[in-house]
From TrEMBL:
Protein's name in the database: AttH domain-containing protein
Domain of life: Bacteria
Region Disordered: start-end pairs: 1-20
Domain AttH: 69-188
Polar residues bias (residue ranges): 1-12
Origin species: Ligilactobacillus salitolerans
Gene3D superfamilies listed in its UniProt record: AttH-like domain
InterPro entries, sorted: AttH-like_dom_sf, AttH_dom
Amino acid sequence: MTENFSAPQTKLDNMERPTRPMFIDPVGDLHPQEGMMGDSWFICSTLDAGDREFGVLIHYIKKPTLSGTSTIAIADISTSRYLLDEAKEADYEIAGQGFEVSSDNLKWSADAATMQAKGKTEAGDEFDLSFKRQGPAIAYNGTGYFPLIDNKLTTYEYGFPKMDITGSVTVDGKNYPVTGNGWFDRQWFPVADASTLASGDTRWVWISMPLSNGEVVAVWSATGKEEHGWADILHADGSHTIADVEPISQNMFGIWTSEKSGIKWPSGWNVTIPSVNAKLKVTIDFQGQETFEGFHRIESVTHVEGTYNGEAVTSRGCGEIVGDPQIK
């Protein structure tokens, strides 16, 4: 028997759609949520430096107190290196409508329209990036509220899928001016659902794809006892569609085994969304984009090619795998 949970009171999205009832507020919910076990602020980005490409990951997770941990990584795509610096103790402060996160590896400030982030690994590689939001927020499931993991994990989530980036990345002592796109994601879970996340059967895949035709696609596939997946599509005209996807677990390719964790991970997915006639090959740029704090995770830069409504599309995006996919 599936457990049911009651929905919270609605809020008004006061950023782009003031008449649509939602369970999230993209401005107000930049601040921490009370009584949450998982309270997360996350950016993945793809960056062009001319003859080099990089990806930058920024992730702050707040504990039930106002302290938390920060993780950063620079994916040096040209050399297939993942320059990771994770789980530094971090402080969070409310700053007007936004926030400031400070730790040994990260200084990150934000409001509803812009963000600034400076990060530095212990090895000395670093980034200094400015973000500017373009277009509306994406509220997952259309409301920013949905059940996850066999309908047992109450989940709130929204994102800023298009953020113009300027700045620099420094690797091996060389500074590279960069431009690109970032995807900011905001997510939280109540403490009451901690037992669901602690289950050894809990795992998920999240894929972000700002497509070359102006459509924005985010794919969720969450597995507990059963696998449930869907796509959120933010159309170029600002409308939002929730669509079925073919099971992600049945469409993985390029299986490899991590020397660090011993886990078998995929190198990508063939994503099919029938309602928009989309067939998209999502490929992780290189193996080893793995983090280890809490759940084992892949936090990767991806490239996408395929068709959408009969037209060829491409994308640079991100793929996240949380928990052991249990590939046989």
